[in-house]
Specification:
With 385 residues, this protein is of the alpha/beta class. It is built from 16 helices and 13 strands.
């Protein structure tokens, strides 16, 4: 099969959507190497997390094919890309992040789109009016024109059905996994080197995620302010909301107990995960929550939000809190700290739960979705002749 991908975020994005794009391409090539994979991207961006594609004869990177498309690369990705998809004789095209190009429904290929979440509909106040309108047009159009929709959680599938009135049989839930680097146990010497490099605390709690309002770091900072004996490492970056968090840190003199890091490589992140006392993920809403899977594979306890998709990713042995209650977060932290057997149970059973999201399971489910529509097309061709 010749499979095309909207690979813009695989090259240019270092957070959730980029990680999903890269991991999807990686596991498909690893487990189904007989296919040909075509990565359509507006421009080349050097990204060490894509080093796995180097030297692969079955992976091809496709750029805009003329000066107009290079200059107006957004227009190419939205519409003009379709001719190059056709020219490369793509059998199946997968929009990895909510979108399908306009006109792709007019060529004889199968179309898949991944929907990660519909947060803009669940929490509209977090988005500007114009952003909500753009997202709604793109997401609804992609779902209507796709032959198959991939939802990254049961929660997202439910939202697609409820908000877009899509038939449930058109939607397959295929969970996300995490990079192999988080599944590899680090030597203490490796961890020490990373701790020294970033001047980390001897003991610390961990937060991983973008620093934006929905991720809710500020409530966790209030908890840290109350727990005078606790330190916090934050791995993530942001803009306006980050300023709010920094103002709170400065106002409450938390600079000596809170450290914010960004731009780390995956190896450094894995060391910081494995040395953490626990990971707190107080997001208001997510499509899935990859940092939870990274933490469970790193064998540390997880505290995260009640409801939504979080129980799907966190399993029965994480602790669930009201994300807007700093007291609730503090109590969960203290319960793990004071109860050694609880902590050990969370680590052991959390790690077992994380194995539900290993590469082999995920890629088999994804390829099963591909085949469910691919073979329908093959039979149509046979019957036609």
């Amino acid at each position: 099969m010749r499979i095309g991908f909207d690979a813009k975020r695989a090259f240019s994005n270092y957070t959730g959507l980029g990680n999903y794009s890269r991991d999807t391409i990686r596991v498909l090539e690893e487990f189904y190497p007989k296919n040909q994979y075509f990565l359509f991207t507006p421009k080349f961006t050097e990204n060490k997390r894509l080093d796995f594609i180097k030297g692969k004869k079955n992976i091809h990177t496709i750029y805009p094919n003329n000066l107009f498309n290079k200059i107006f690369s957004s227009y190419w990705r939205t519409k003009n890309i379709v001719q190059q998809i056709k020219n490369n004789k793509i059998d199946l095209y997968h929009g990895l992040s909510h979108e399908l190009p306009i006109g792709i429904e007019n060529i004889n290929i199968k179309k898949v789109v991944t929907i990660h979440d519909l947060i803009y509909l669940r929490y509209p106040k977090l988005f500007s009016n114009i952003d909500r309108k753009i997202y709604d047009k793109k997401f609804r159009s992609a779902c209507d024109r796709a032959d198959k929709i991939i939802a990254v959680s049961q929660q997202t599938k439910t939202d697609i059905i409820d908000f877009f009135k899509i038939e449930k049989d058109k939607i397959d839930v295929v969970y996300q996994g995490c990079n192999q680097v988080f599944k590899t146990k680090r030597e203490q010497q490796e961890i020490s080197v990373v701790k020294n490099k970033f001047n980390l605390f001897e003991k610390y709690l961990l937060y991983v995620g973008s620093i934006e309002k929905r991720k809710n770091l500020l409530t966790l900072l209030r908890s840290i302010n109350d727990l005078k004996h606790k330190n916090l490492i934050v791995i993530g970056d942001g803009s306006e909301y980050k300023k709010e968090c920094l103002n709170y840190i400065n106002k409450n003199k938390l600079n000596s107990r809170v450290k914010i890091l960004s731009g780390l490589n995956l190896f450094e992140m894995s060391c910081i995960y494995q040395e953490a006392e626990m990971m707190i993920y107080p997001s208001i809403f997510e499509g899935f929550g990859i940092p939870i899977i990274e933490a469970l594979n790193s064998k540390i306890p997880v505290i995260t939000t009640k409801g939504g998709c979080f129980h799907e990713s966190g399993g029965d042995h994480s602790l669930y809190i009201d994300p807007l209650s700093s007291d609730d977060i503090s109590n969960a932290i203290l319960s793990i700290e004071k109860n050694k057997s609880l902590k050990e149970s969370m680590i052991e059973n959390g790690y077992k739960h994380a194995q539900n999201f290993n590469d082999e399971i995920i890629v088999k489910n994804l390829f099963k979705s591909y085949n469910s529509i691919w073979w329908k097309m093959k039979w149509k061709i046979v019957l036609k002749f």
